[in-house]
Here is the input.
Amino acid sequence: MDFNDIQNAWNNEKTDNVVLPDNLEKIQSANTPLDRIRRNLKNEFIYQICSIVLVGFVPLMYDFPEKMTTLYYLLFSFYVAVCAYYLFKFYVFYKRLSSLTLKTKDNLYETYFDIRLNMELYKTFGFALTPFLILYLISFLYFEFSKIPGFISKEFTNYQLIAFFSIVVFSMLFMGIILEWWVHKFYGKYAKEIRKVIDELKEE
Here is the structure.
C-alpha cells in the first residue's frame, strides 16, 4: 500500500468527532458562558484568599485573651487546611477550563459535566466550612457575653441551650440557602446556557 492508498483510507475513515460547520458555530457559542465561569472562578479564588487572611486577624481585631487566641488559631489551622484542599481543586479546574477549546460535541459534553461536578464540589466545600462557622459564632458570642457579670455559671441555662441550638440550626440553613443561591448565580445559570447548546445539537 503506497502513500496515496493510506491517505485515501484515512479520509474514508468515519469519525464521531467530526463537526459540521453549522454545528461548530453553535458549539463555539458556548464559549461566552464558559468565559464568564472562568472569570467568576478567578474572582472567587481571590475573594477566598482574602477572606482567609481576614479571618486570621480576628483575634487581633477583638483583643482575645491569650488562651482563647491559642485555641482560635488551632481551629484556624484546620480551617486553612480544608480551604487549601478545596481551593487547590478549584485552581486545577480553572487551569483546565483556561486551556480548553470547544471544537467538538465531545468537548462540550465533557466540559458541561466537569462544570456540574465542580458545582457540587463547591457545595461540599461550603458544607465542610459550616462546622467552623458554628464554632466561630459560638466562640465569638461566648467571648462577648462572658463580659456580662453572672453570665458564666457551672451549668448551662435553658436560655443558653436554646441559643446554642439556634446557632446550629441557623448556620446550617444559612449555608444551605446561600450556597444554592451563590452556585446558581455565578455558575449554574451559565451551565444551563451550555446545556441549552447541547440540547440544540441533539435535535439536529
Summary: Residues 13-21 have pLDDT under 50 and may be disordered. The helical segments are 3-12, 21-28, 31-56, 58-62, 66-98, 105-145, 158-203.
